[in-house]
């Protein structure tokens, strides 16, 4: 993801670059280049497309003796280099041509200095956390990467979290062996061309106010964020739980809260965490348990036993979940609506949901205005692949 800037004149001619500019196909396979020929791709901006950038590709035969690019070595280089995108070390700028074409849905730069400025600006304003999932060769002089970036907008008082996942297509100049282009495609939008109003709206809608308590919560990695939900990989965690009455209900809370407040076999007081889960295990969402997550440094064998027979300790093995986030008071009707829509969306996208769901409530309802409440509905998935 990159920050907006004024558009350059689209009619300005660009030099020939060796690059593949196209959205990566998730089903594409490795295509090694022929040892007899190599391809040079000319990039030009179509001045007739005034509202977006357009790419014209033409393949030109070139003598194999003119290019000795080791694409496998560059794949390994990106695995090592890209994790430093926003840390103090930074990326190795010597791996890029001075003329680097960068595009994402709301930003464009045409030079290495502009490319590096954009990275520095993001680092200052958003404090990005960048996770690289994989790097693959997807063309003779083209490498595609998949990533997740989580950013905190430091200029707003409530410091909203912005999440972007997607792919980057990196073009290689066969004459220099350096990267000459970088084009981002976000999972959350359909129109990834620059300038994308859909992309700008995707940024804007993530700026809404949520109040998330400064408490420990289960650890997870965001693998993909679509327009409708996130796919997360949860690490294992432990809960103290008891029977509840309904997904949006609070029956049983006093019993599980009593456990962490010292009503246990050793009278140990355990720090409060977030969120409070209510979980329905059946298709009708009628059999419900209420759960409080225990601190991550606890081991289930070392925890004190509950005093109440109806209260249990259980280790949740974690796994892959589809999650939808929403604010407001989580009434039973609203939670059922969110669960139904989430299940419909993940089935439409070819994923396999498990039975039941969880409602995660992060806030004290007596102290938090409804519009600031952070709530989530989670559905565990049978399987998920980022390939």
UniProtKB/TrEMBL annotation:
Question: Which Pfam families does the UniProt record give?
Answer: DUF2358 (PF10184), SOUL (PF04832)
Q: Gene3D superfamilies annotated for this entry? A: Regulatory factor, effector binding domain (3.20.80.10)
Family to which the UniProt record says this protein belongs: Belongs to the HEBP family.
Q: What is this protein called?
A: SOUL heme-binding protein
Q: Write down the species.
A: Acacia crassicarpa
């Amino acid at each position: 993801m990159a920050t907006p800037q004024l558009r350059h004149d689209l009619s300005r001619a660009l030099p020939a670059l060796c690059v593949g500019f196209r959205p990566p196909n998730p089903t594409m396979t490795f295509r090694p280049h022929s040892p007899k020929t190599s391809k040079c791709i000319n990039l030009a901006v179509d001045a007739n497309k005034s509202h977006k950038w357009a790419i014209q590709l033409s393949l030109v035969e070139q003598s194999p003796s003119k290019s000795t690019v080791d694409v496998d070595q560059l794949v390994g280089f990106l695995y090592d280099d890209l994790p430093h995108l926003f840390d103090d070390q930074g990326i190795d700028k010597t791996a890029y041509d001075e003329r680097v074409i960068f595009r994402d849905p709301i930003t464009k730069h045409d030079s290495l200095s502009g490319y590096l400025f954009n990275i520095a600006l993001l680092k200052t304003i958003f404090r990005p956390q960048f996770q690289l999932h994989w790097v693959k060769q997807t063309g003779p002089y083209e490498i595609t990467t998949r990533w997740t970036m989580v950013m905190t907008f430091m200029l707003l008082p409530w410091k909203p979290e912005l999440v972007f996942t997607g792919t980057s297509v990196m073009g290689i100049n066969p004459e220099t062996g350096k990267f000459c282009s970088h084009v981002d495609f976000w999972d959350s939008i359909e129109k990834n061309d620059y300038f994308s109003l859909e992309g700008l709206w995707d940024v804007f809608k993530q700026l809404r106010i949520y109040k998330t308590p400064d408490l420990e919560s289960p650890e997870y990695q965001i693998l993909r964020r679509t327009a409708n939900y996130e796919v997360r990989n949860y690490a294992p965690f432990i809960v103290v739980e008891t029977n509840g009455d309904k997904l949006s209900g609070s029956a049983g809370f006093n019993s599980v809260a009593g456990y962490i407040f010292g009503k246990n076999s050793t009278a140990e007081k355990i720090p409060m965490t977030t969120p409070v889960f209510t979980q329905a295990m059946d298709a009708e969402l009628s059999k419900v348990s209420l759960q409080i997550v225990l601190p991550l440094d606890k081991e289930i064998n070392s925890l004190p036993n509950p005093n109440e027979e109806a209260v249990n300790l259980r280790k949740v093995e974690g796994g892959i979940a589809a999650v939808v986030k929403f604010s407001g008071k989580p009434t039973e009707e609203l939670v059922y609506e969110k669960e139904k829509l989430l299940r419909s969306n993940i089935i439409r996208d070819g994923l396999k949901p498990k039975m039941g769901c969880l409602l995660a409530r992060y806030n004290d309802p007596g102290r938090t205005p409804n519009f600031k409440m952070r709530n989530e509905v989670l559905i565990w998935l049978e399987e998920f692949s980022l390939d």
